[in-house]
Each structure stands twice: as C-alpha cells, then as structure tokens.
C-alpha cells in the first residue's frame, strides 16, 4: 500500500509521520462506515481497507493516540506534580478506562459501600487530573505540528485528529450560530443580480461582465452594447449619435457567406428589418454607430447621414491583415445600407478609412477603444483622443458603469393560443 510506503519513507520526520498516520486513521473510519452500508456481505473486499493496512491494527472503540513518539521539543510536562514528561499512550489508556467505568456507573451500578465510593472518588480525581494533562499535551502537540508545516502546504488539508474530536467543545443547537433566512423577495433579487445586468432593452449575463473585470480580458458584444446603451441614456436627448448591436453586421456577414441558405437568410432578413425599423422610429441623429467584429478584433463603423460618409475606425490600423478586414466590413455595410434604403446608391457614399495613428499597443483593449469612440461621438460628435495610457482608468470607469446598472428582471410571457400563425415570406 502506498500509504505504508510513505510511512516508512518519512519515518524520520516525526511531524509529517504524525500527519500521515492521522490521515490513515480518518481513511479507516471512512472505509468502515461505507463498508457497513454498501457492502455488508463483503463481496467487494478490494474496495475497503484491510486490518493490516491500518497502522494501529484492529482498534477497540476507545481511540488511542499515535504510537509514534512526538518530537522532543513538543513534549509537555505535567505541571506542579512532576517535571518528568507525560506518556500520552498510558494516560490515554487510563482515560479510556475511566470513561468506561464512568459509563458503567451511569447505567445503573448500585453496588459498593462507602469505602469503595471514597476510593473510587480518589481514583477518579487523580485520573481526571491526568486527563487534563493529556488534553493540554495533545493540544500543544497539534498546535506545534501545524506550526512547522512547509510553506507550500495548505493547512486545510491537515487531517483531523480523533483527540480534537473528543476534546473539542460540543456543538449543540444552542452553540451553532443561526443565519436568518432570506425572504422570498430578497432571494429573487439576489438571483437576478447573480444572473446579469440590464439597461434599456439590452442585457448581459454575469459571466460576460465578470470577464471585463480582468485587465487583460475580452469585451464580448453584449457587454459593448449594454455599455453603449448606458452612455446613450446618460446623454439623454442631447446625444449626437445612435448605436446598434454588432449583430447587424454579423448577420449581413452570414448572408454574404451563405447565399444558398434561403430559409435561414429569410429569417435573418426579417430580423434585420425589425432592427432597422427600431432605428427609424428614434429621433433623427447625425451619426449611427455600429461595432464591427473582424477576426479576433473589434472595430467601429460610423455612418454620417448628413455628409453620406462611412468612417471605419480601427485602434490597430497597422496590424497584419487590416486591409482584408476593412474590405470585409465595407461589404457588410453596403448590404446593410441596401436594406435601410431601397434607393441606396453606393457611388453616392464615401468610405473613409482610419486616419489616426495606431493607438492600441496590446491585444485586448480593442473593445475599450471602441467604447471610447462611441462615448465621444455621443457626447461631442468627435472621435476620442484616448491612447493606450488612458485605457486602464477607462476600463475601471466602464466597470463602474456596469455595477451601477439594475439586475435582470424576470418577465412572464403569456402566449395566446388563439393568435394567428405568422409566416415570414418574401412577399
């Protein structure tokens, strides 16, 4: 058995040997417990510990302390009676005998005269004093063993000694601290807060939000849309730009990649028309901001309705493959513009690439740069002047925005079974 080999190997290290022996002790009781419940007939003997694998052999109900002698520096004297060191094994035997005798007396032993009673009282008094000495000795031993653990060890993995169980204070119902249960309303609020955040008609789950709290994390599209909605609401009627979800260009990308999938494209077109209709219902703004996701990178598309310009903003405009990404986003924008206006003419519009020098120097702040440009255009109608040195403070500010948002709200949707079925068709 590997445990026995470990005991032999570390026999010289008394403190570690003591811990290994305690682990075997706990494992023995665990094996015996499940052996009685799961294999009472003994058909699966290979699963359980055998007697020869238990370091103390078959033990009676009384719990013995370790036979391994503790380190010299851990031995404790008995106090006023003598300066000699205590023998934990002998005193534990006497303590066990005393407990057995006391238990028998409590069960109804009525024999004995006054002399026997006085002699028993004297013996009990002496053994109780020795039991107190054992408790002090063992507690001091365990404290010293725990104090000399290696720095890499985890204290929570130290086995629980049976002496701690017998000497510890009893935990009755009166000693257990009561935790007041949460009300039903408080539980619902906590579940909503754990689920995610919401702002306007947009929401985001907690796992995507928690990723933003890491300085080198990736901004997911839902997070960008949620924060953009917050920035738009903060500007109120003075906001100079609308924003849209990145799914607009992503769905246009799917239509370009899979023109043969007529059924799925029909559903995509229906969803795009719905989102475009929501934009048309909003008050007119000069700009329309749409985050665009390319391969492993976030960019931003700005549609200038007054001047008929499409600005492509990229915080890493000197990276490898930037021209291919720009051409891809341009195709997606033209598809979207044709859906917005049936009389759209591509030649009447001007595509403006990124003119600013590259401002991003790492591989993960692209989402933060997109939000910086969106916030600047909503507030002033101008691009952001932030650089890489401002990103850490800006990300902390974004986290504050998200934390201030309300949690998700559960809504019950009542479906009318008598409502007509809606068919989505080209007509």
UniProtKB/TrEMBL annotation:
InterPro entries reported in the protein's UniProt record: Papain-like_cys_pep_sf (IPR038765), Peptidase_C48_C (IPR003653)
Q: Which residues form the Ubiquitin-like protease family profile domain?
A: 161-377
Top-level taxon in the UniProt lineage: Eukaryota
Its BP terms in the Gene Ontology are:
proteolysis
Pfam families membership:
Peptidase_C48 (PF02902)
Spans annotated as Disordered: 65-118
Which GO MF terms are attached to this record? cysteine-type peptidase activity; ubiquitin-like protein peptidase activity
Question: Looking at the keywords, is Protease present?
Answer: yes
Tell me which UniProt keywords the record has, alphabetically: Hydrolase, Protease
Coiled-coil stretches, from where to where? none
Spell out the Acidic residues composition-biased ranges. Answer: 88-97
Checking Gene3D superfamilies in the record gives:
Adenoviral Proteinase, Chain A
For the keyword Protease, the answer is yes
The record's family statement is: Belongs to the peptidase C48 family.
Q: What is this protein called?
A: Ubiquitin-like protease family profile domain-containing protein
Source species: Sphaerobolus stellatus (strain SS14)
């Amino acid at each position: 058995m590997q445990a026995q080999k470990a005991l032999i190997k570390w026999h010289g290290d008394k403190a570690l040997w003591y811990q290994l022996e305690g682990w075997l002790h706990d494992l023995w009781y665990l094996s015996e417990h499940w052996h009685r419940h799961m294999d009472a007939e003994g058909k699966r003997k290979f699963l359980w510990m055998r007697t020869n694998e238990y370091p103390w052999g078959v033990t009676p109900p009384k719990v013995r302390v370790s036979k391994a002698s503790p380190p010299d520096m851990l031995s404790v004297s008995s106090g006023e009676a003598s300066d000699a060191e205590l023998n934990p094994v002998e005193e534990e035997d006497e303590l066990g005998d005393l407990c057995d005798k006391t238990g028998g007396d409590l069960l109804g032993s009525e024999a004995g005269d006054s002399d026997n009673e006085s002699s028993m009282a004297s013996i009990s008094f002496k053994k109780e004093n020795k039991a107190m000495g054992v408790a002090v000795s063992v507690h001091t031993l365990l404290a010293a063993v725990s104090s000399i653990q290696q720095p890499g060890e985890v204290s929570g993995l130290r086995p629980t000694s049976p002496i701690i169980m017998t000497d510890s204070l009893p935990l009755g119902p009166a000693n257990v601290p009561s935790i007041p249960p949460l009300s039903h309303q408080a539980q619902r609020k906590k579940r909503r807060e754990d689920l995610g955040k919401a702002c306007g008609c947009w929401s985001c789950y907690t796992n995507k939000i928690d990723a933003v709290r890491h300085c080198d994390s990736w901004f997911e599209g839902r997070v960008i849309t949620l924060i953009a909605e917050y920035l738009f609401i903060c500007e109120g009627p003075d906001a100079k730009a609308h924003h849209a979800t990145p799914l607009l260009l992503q769905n246009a990308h799917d239509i370009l990649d899979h023109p043969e999938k007529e059924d799925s494209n029909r559903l995509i077109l229906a969803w795009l028309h719905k989102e475009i209709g929501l934009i048309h219902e909003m008050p007119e703004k000069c700009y329309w901001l749409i985050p665009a996701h390319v391969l492993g990178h976030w960019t931003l598309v700005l549609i200038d309705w007054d001047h008929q310009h499409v600005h492509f903003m990229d915080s890493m405009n000197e990276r490898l493959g930037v021209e291919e990404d720009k051409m891809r986003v341009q195709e997606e924008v033209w598809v979207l513009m044709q859906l917005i206006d049936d009389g759209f003419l591509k030649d009447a519009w001007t595509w403006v690439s990124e003119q600013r020098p590259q401002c991003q120097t790492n591989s993960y702040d692209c989402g933060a740069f997109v939000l910086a440009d969106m916030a600047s255009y909503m507030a002033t109608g101008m691009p952001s002047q932030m650089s890489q040195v401002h990103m850490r403070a800006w990300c902390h500010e974004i986290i504050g925005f998200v934390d201030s948002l309300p949690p998700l709200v559960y809504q019950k949707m009542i479906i009318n079974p008598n409502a007509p079925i809606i068919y989505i068709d080209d007509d």
